[in-house]
Design brief:
The chain is an alpha+beta fold and 303 residues long. The chain has one domain. It contains eleven helices and seven strands. It has a five-stranded antiparallel β-sheet with strand order 6-5-4-3-7, with helices on both faces. It has a two-stranded antiparallel ribbon with strand order 1-2. Helix 3 (134-146) runs parallel beside helix 4 and helix 5 runs parallel beside helix 8. The longest helix has 22 residues, at 245-266.
Length: 303
């Protein structure tokens, strides 16, 4: 059985290798900048400096001031905290929450990578000291992604249909559990009970699980009228379903199929020119997933 790394390399054969894949982590002695710092242009260093100045206490100063921060993807070290996706036939989406180490090695930036057929963005959410203790770091990630106690989620507008937690390195499975729980608790119009029920009734059959247009319309009309309380028991049940490896694989295949369908649906409209093929849009996501023990994750659509 092939690993995800082998699957990704096979399905992406012919594409240019990313020079920052599996980067070596250079030691920082507090005196001299690590050798990797010399790899960055003055413009890159300026971008990092401006971003770190603007991020305070794990949060940007103003939400609207956060520009696309694609340069974070070329950081000396990028650690994937977790990846998730939403199967929507009109807008399939894959997102990853990551930590990028700045060129000096002193700080880490919490950022969100979003990929869908019409958008490929990288947004900085906050910053932490590189030597911050693990538990403090997880609390900082939660605060940065929720905007602090009493605020709404900055990473979830609806519940994911699959989640791939990090299983090594800095963040373990339980840390991802805590981050998602806190964010979904802060999000609005989340109905995990209905989602868990559909997942069980249409197990490993994602296309049958999707609500009909009539059901979606009825749900939209009723949103805000009934707020389902999310207990830890309900969340744990849903979590065990969306992180199941077999479910993740079936969901990923459906995401790629939906991706192609969403682009074809645009036809010759002006938006079609903005469409990004799955292999291109998910290239960075797939590099991140080389760190995960998932398999059979591809970006091509089989006929």
């Amino acid at each position: 059985m092939q690993t995800v790394v082998e699957e990704i390399k096979r399905s992406s054969s012919g594409s240019e290798a990313n020079p920052h894949s599996n980067p070596d982590v250079c030691p920082y002695d507090g005196q001299n900048l690590p050798p990797v710092y010399d790899m960055f242009s003055e413009n890159d260093k300026s971008s990092w400096s401006k971003l770190l100045d603007r991020l305070q206490d794990g949060q940007p100063k103003e939400e609207e001031d956060v520009e696309d921060c694609a340069f974070l993807e070329a950081a000396p070290s990028v650690e994937r905290l977790m990846t998730w996706g939403i199967l929507n036939p009109f807008g399939p989406t894959v997102e990853s929450l990551c930590l990028a180490t700045d060129p000096s090695g002193k700080a880490k930036v919490i950022f969100l990578k979003t990929s869908n057929p019409l958008e490929n963005s990288t947004d900085a959410l906050g910053t932490v000291n590189a030597d911050m203790p693990h538990d403090d770091l997880i609390r900082a990630v939660i605060d940065s992604t929720t905007g602090g106690p009493g605020s709404s989620s900055r990473i979830f507008q609806s519940e994911p249909t699959f989640v791939i937690p990090s299983t090594g390195g800095l963040t373990q499975h339980l840390d991802a559990f805590a981050i998602v729980f806190r964010n979904l608790s802060a999000a609005e119009n989340i109905d995990l009970a209905s989602e868990a029920d559909r997942l069980k009734r249409f197990w490993l059959n994602p296309w049958a699980r999707l609500p009909s247009p009539e059901e979606l319309f009825a749900t939209a009309r009723s949103q805000g009228l009934v707020q389902t309380k999310m207990s830890k028991t309900l969340f744990s049940e849903w979590w065990s379903l969306v992180t199941n490896p077999e479910h993740v694989e079936s969901e990923w295949r459906a995401i790629v199929e939906a991706w192609q369908g969403a682009i074809e649906f645009l036809g010759n409209s002006p938006m079609a020119k903005m469409a990004i093929p799955a292999a291109e849009a998910l290239a960075f996501q797939m590099r991140l997933l080389e760190q995960a023990p998932q398999r059979n994750l591809r970006t091509e659509v089989k006929n």
